[in-house]
Amino acid sequence: MFFAGGEDIPGFKNLKEYDRKMIKNAIKNAAPVVKKLRMNSNDESEKKKNDELSNKVAEQSKLFDHYRKELNSLKNEELYKLFVENGQDIPSKRKDRIDRLADYMAFGVPKKCLQCKHGQIILDDFYYRCDGNIDAWTKCCYTTKEPDKEVIRIPETLKGYPMFKEFNSVITQRLFLNEPSSLADKPLDSHTSLNKKLQPLKNIQFYLYGKLKTPKKEVKRRIELMGGLVVGKLTYTTAAVITTKEKLGKKSTMIQNIKRMEIEVIEESYLDLIEPENGTVLDSLKLIKDNNIANWGSDPIKRVPQDIIEGKNVLKSGSMYRTSASKQKVKIMDGMEVDSRTGLEEKANIYKDTESTFSVVLSNSDSVVYSV
Ligand SMILES: [Zn+2]
User: Fold this and answer.
1) Residues 152, 221: one domain?
2) Which reaction(s) does the protein catalyse, per the Swiss-Prot or TrEMBL entry (predicted)?
3) Coil, strand or helix: which one is 106?
4) In angstroms, what is the span from residue 113 Cα to ligand 1's centroid?
5) Is residue 119 packed enough to be buried (19+ CB in 10 Å), middle (13-18) or exposed (0-12)?
């Protein structure tokens, strides 16, 4: 953390008076605030307050620990159901799942972040913090000790469990101990460490179709956190379509297209099966095959480019793969070129009118892309 004021920035003295003023106003010296905090904590009444606070925190954590123990008896699928029912993202570690659910049970479920509007407010050691992103490069840094909350909803299928039978959801503000000043310097966990760890879906393309149980935005975020891509168009390199059984049963034009292209269809619960830390791209593709809810499928392992399966970096434009031009095999038919990767070079008809050949290059994407 940078406590110094704008006047401490190298080169400040070389600036013009007007710019100096602007920078000084924008970056105020934070040091006096720190001093004040330290003085207060030496204060006698402050100390008493702190002791009272610790007692209350200890009291609250008894309830929290009680729920934690009870939740520990649930299977992962049951924990997932609780997250889904409450529209919350599912942490990758079981320990974090239990901690977070115990917090929801004891204190209520935090609503979405007020600052970035979509981030999830999650429990940290000394406050709640937002785990959302403001844009592709900036993490949301919102923290609060008293987020807006709602009562936890218990899924119908779990209501009969002894631990939920007597349970009454309440909203209580959780008390936090004051953050030790040394922790104020703790760097925020960087994006890079996140990205290095969570890549079992690296470059795997998913297509989200229809209304899902969780808002699409959240499903997309989960996929992207694990390295995956959500595409806006269906192509043969799409590893799977994520939708619901109901939507699949409706046999819409889109479903018929998916069937014709023999792309596997999975439910969003597929994402719960991914091992965020140790899972490989190949594991994730196999899981698609194993959890296919359609009665068709041509195996994503055969469709997806080999580099993707090996977890290599690939050329992309947006969420689509780009193939380098030199590798394209083109077959000339009736004076027209047909990209051999389409598998159409033997069957394609080239449209000609009497005057001129249609100047269209058939490529993989042209023959299979259906607009959303
Ligand atoms: Zn936020």
Assistant:
1) no
2) NAD(+) + (ADP-D-ribosyl)n-acceptor = nicotinamide + (ADP-D-ribosyl)n+1-acceptor + H(+)
3) helix
4) 4
5) buried
334: left (phi over 0), alpha (psi -120 to 50) or beta: left
Residues surrounding ion ligand 1 at CB below 5 Å? 113, 115-116, 119, 130, 132, 140, 142
The parent domain of residue 138 ranges over 60-172
| Confidence category of residue 25, pLDDT binned at 50, 70, 90 | confident
206 with 277, same domain?
A: yes
pLDDT value at position 344? 53
Residues 285/309, Cβ–Cβ less than 8 Å: yes
| Count: domains in the chain | 4
**Which residues partner with 240 through β-bridges?**
206
Does the pLDDT value for residue 198 go beyond 60? Answer: no
Residues 123 and 226 in one domain: no
Percent with pLDDT over 70 in the chain: 73
Q: Nearest CA to 38 among 178, 142, 185? A: 178
pLDDT tens-digit map of 85-115: 999 989 999 999 999 999 999 999 999 998 8
119 CA → ligand 1 middle, Å: 4
Q: What is the mean pLDDT of residues 135-145?
A: 85
